[in-house]
Amino acid sequence: MQGVFDFYEDLPVRPKRPERLFFGLFPDTETSVRAGRCGERFTSEDRQEWTWLKTERRHVSLHHVGDYKRLRTKFIYSARQAALAVSMRPFEVTFRFIKSVEVAPPIGGRPGRRALVLLCEGDGLGDLDRILGAAMQKNGLKAGGHVAPHMTLSYGSKLIPEQAIEPICFVVKEFALIHSKLWLTQYDLIDRWRLRC
Questions:
Q1: pLDDT at 140 over 80
Q2: Contact 93, 120 (CB under 8 A)
Q3: I need a labelling partner for 154 at 20 to 30 A (CA). Which of 48, 102, 111, 174 fits?
Q4: pTM for this structure?
Q5: What CA–CA distance (Å, rounded) separates 188 from 180?
Q6: Residue 79 in 3-state DSSP?
Q7: b or e along 60-72 (b: 16 or more beta carbons within 10 Å of the residue's beta carbon)?
Q8: Nearest to 195 by CA among 61, 65, 91, 92
Q9: For the chain, what is the radius of gyration of the CA atoms?
Q10: Mean pLDDT, the chain, whole residue set
Q11: Cβ count within 10 A of residue 48
């Protein structure tokens, strides 16, 4: 699973490769709202210090396809071909833990930057990761290394140690190919594929 945290807002310049392509899962709106409320309980004392992702942007990253100076059609085509090779039933994912993880170290006296994330699990998640990764390799793409699957809720500086939460579940019925414009907080949904055998 890919664990790249895709932006934080107060950096002055976009990266040299600002166009990111990746596969991800979007929870339904109700699940995304519940996840946000869960995160707010852990940041209620310092809510102003956190930058929250919009409900519709919250997702679980799967495989990172690549970062590019300019996104080319051939990479989108290869990613679509890989996605078409996936054949599996819908499955359930459960968020059971919350914590903050460092995404940028302290610089020049400024505090480091952390992402507040929910960690998720589910047997189908591992299966989708494996099937999609193999299909990517067959289509000339490099599959990302394994990182604990998670959903980012917000960015801030506070350290929040890993803690159990009341489980939040949702059924994954589809996955998506997403174009992220790094540090502009913009996603373009390129395509979606429904899970079915």
A1: yes
A2: yes
A3: 174
A4: 0.84
A5: 6
A6: helix
A7: bbbbbbbbeeebe
A8: 91
A9: 17
A10: 87
A11: 8
Residue bearing tokens 């903050």:
100
According to CATH, the superfamily of the domain at 19-92+121-153+172-194 is Cyclic phosphodiesterase (3.90.1140.10)
The token pair that represents 36 in the structure block: 């946000």
The answer to whether 168 and 39 are in contact (CB under 8 A) is no
Q: Indicate the length of the chain as a whole number.
A: 197
DSSP state at residue 143: P
Judged by DSSP in three states, 5 sits in: coil
Residue-wise pLDDT tens digits, 44-87? 877 668 889 999 999 999 999 988 888 889 999 999 999 999 99
Largest Cα–Cα distance of the chain, in whole Å?
54
Write out the two tokens for 5.
């945290």
Determine the pLDDT at residue 3. 46
Query: Quick one: tokens of 189?
Result: 């949904």
